[in-house]
Amino acid sequence: MPRSWTLKVEAWPALNRATFYPVKVLGVSKDKPGLLVELGHFDKSQAGRRHSILLPLPCRPEGLTSSFLSAAGLDVSIGTVTPADAIGTILKARMEPAPDGEGYQAVAFEPMRKEPKDEHASE
C-alpha cells in the first residue's frame, strides 16, 4: 500500500498597509461596475498570491483608476486610454483590508522605478 502524502496548508502572510508591493498586471477587463484588474505579487513572501481589484469607472483625473493607469505607464489625460495596454506591466500597489473583512483592496499605485527579478520566470 502506498504511503500517504500530505501538505500543510498555510494562510497568506498579512499585507502591511504601509508597504507598496511590487505586482505584475496579469489582466484587465471591463466589469459592469468598474475596471477589473488582476494583479500578481513579486514579493518573495507573497509569491503566487493574486488579487482581483475592482477600480471605479468612469476614470477621472487624480482618481484611483487614473493612478493605476499612470503607474502602468499609460498617458492618462482627458480623452481615451486603452486599459489592456497595462497588461504585463510591473508597478507597485499598496493594499488595505477590504471593508467587509474579505481580502484586500488597492488604495494606491506607484510606477516601478526598477523591475524586480521574476523568481518564476524560466531562464
Secondary-structure topology with pairs:
Layout (H helix, E strand, L loop, with lengths): L19 E12 L2 E8 L8 E7 L7 H8 L18 E8 L6 E8 L12
Antiparallel strand pairs: 1-2, 1-4, 2-3, 4-5
Walk me through this protein's architecture.
- β2 (34-41) and β3 (50-56) form a beta hairpin.
- The model has no long low-confidence stretch (mean pLDDT 88).
- This protein has one helix at residues 64-71; strands spanning 20-31, 34-41, 50-56, 90-97, 104-111.
- The protein has 123 residues and is mainly beta.
- The longest helix is centred in the middle third of the chain and has 8 residues, at 64-71.
- The protein contains one helix and five strands.
- The protein has one domain (20-108).
- It is elongated.
- The chain has a five-stranded antiparallel β-sheet.
Task: Give the gist of this structure.
The chain has 123 residues and is mainly beta.
Structural key phrases:
123 residues, mainly beta, 7% helix
* N-to-C SSE string, H for helix and E for strand: EEEHEE
Query: What is the CA-CA span between the terminal residues?
Result: 39 Å
Strand order of the largest sheet: 3-2-1-4-5
- Helix segment tally: 1
Pick out the low-confidence regions. Answer: none
Largest sheet: 5 strands, antiparallel
State mean pLDDT (0 to 100 scale): 88
Oligomer: single chain
Principal-axis shape:
elongated
User: Helix proportion of residues, in percent?
Assistant: under 10%
Quote the beta fraction: 25-35%
Number of strands: 5
> Could you say how many structural domains there are in total?
1
Radius of gyration: 16 Å
Name the structural class.
mainly beta
